[in-house]
Amino acid sequence: MRRNWLTWTGVGIGLVVLVLSKLYDLDPFDRLSDFFETVEQYELDEVFIAGLIVLVFFAADLLLKERKRKIEHEKVKVYKAMVSSAHHVLNNFLNQMLLFKITAEDTPGFDKEVLDLYDVVMEDAKEQINALSSITEVNEDKIKEAVRPEPRQGS
Question: Do residues 126 and 94 touch, judged by C-beta distance below 8 A?
Answer without folding.
Answer: yes
